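Attaching the record inline, Q. Sequence:
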Amino acid sequence: MFGDWLRSAGFLLSFALVVSSFSAVAPASADEPAAEFKLRADDTLVSPDHQLRIEQYSKDMGDEGFLHQFWAFDDKHQHGSLLNPGEGIDLAGYPAGFRFSPDSQWLVRMQTLGAGYQTLFLYWRNGNEFSSATPKPLGDLAWDYFFGLPVAKRLHRDPKDRDSLNHVQAILIKGLEDNYAWLGQHWPDNRYLVISLSFDAQGEDKPAPWIEAWRCVYDLKTAAFSVPPAFAEHNAKAVKTPRADRK
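Structure, as predicted:
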């Protein structure tokens, strides 16, 4: 009986040593960045309700540049969730800007893709975590909407060949924090995002029309895009055409 006890104790000790050894070499927890990612402290953003914080981390990839991760943490920094899993250099090669909705339930990521290129990502809150709110980047959905409108036909562009467009930008217009009071729309709180779309004709031998800061809104409640009548005059001026004397 005593021998059985010794054998049992020996097994437990061996098991404890194995667990201890595994813990020493185990990777960083899935709810925090790996050690090679360094905090960009100046880019931290706290939610309006002070319960969450968005932190940005970067990893030096040598000649390939930097890879960025974006994390949401609770106010005690005990639990984190990664906002951009699986994104490579093409989508996370640059730091991002973030904006919370006033009720802290929505988060917009303004992601630079390169010089003159930017898109948007939208996240919705579930407790202390944020999850993607759209099946693809919100910026891509905004362009899908634009190219489905009659105005897009005036540009003489192939909507299926958007990679050929120069300096494509989907930008969140300022004012989300106060529901765009400066636009004088008197919209319901925490309901709309105002998005600006632009591209140019730089480098084209025979420039076709382009757009500069064409506006639409995204309804967070219905997940639909629209153009308020108040934007009509602005959007008419946003469509640019080449000079008649340019060949």
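Confidence is low (pLDDT under 50) at residues 1-29. The two ends are 99 Å apart (CA to CA).

More tomorrow.
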